[in-house]
């Protein structure tokens, strides 16, 4: 199958990273995360619109459904099915043909994935980091990004955890330990 034509600016220095937002939410605690994730998705949708206008690369880094996935389109379709917990989120922020989509094995988007190579190829220096869960996968991805020298920006309303307290603590750690700019 041919690769989709990418339309991002060749001198882009920022990428929008969307962590784990495409999901069936069938994992333990997933049901409690749906509401906060939908609220974050509404803000991420606006960030996506801006990124597409500016031709900023958009990269989804996503958990699999417990087994290794190889077909992201099939995975997105499953998450968008009638009755799927993640359907509303897919309706808000479904990947487009010009977006990148990487499956990850563990908490960090960098762990055994081509993410760092992709970011290097795109000449990205700054990550606009969004997604779920702020205190787990977003945090681990941010730690690995920080160790690799990426500048981090995290929109306060673009990340979520099952509880507001978990999100607040994660944002505090991101700012204090990783020098992330927390954006309103």
How would you describe this structure in keywords?
184 residues; alpha/beta; 40% helix
Biggest pleated sheet: 7 strands, parallel
Cα radius of gyration in angstroms: 15 Å
| Residue windows where pLDDT falls under 50 for at least 5 positions | 1-6
Q: Count the helices. How many? A: 6
Oligomer: single chain
Based on DSSP secondary structure assignment, what is the total number of beta strands?
Answer: 7
| Average residue pLDDT | 92
**What is the ordering of alpha helices and beta strands?**
EHEHHEHEHEEHE
CATH class category name: Alpha Beta
Kindly name the structural category.
alpha/beta
CATH topology: Rossmann fold
Shape: globular
CATH architecture: 3-Layer(aba) Sandwich
Structural domains: how many: 1
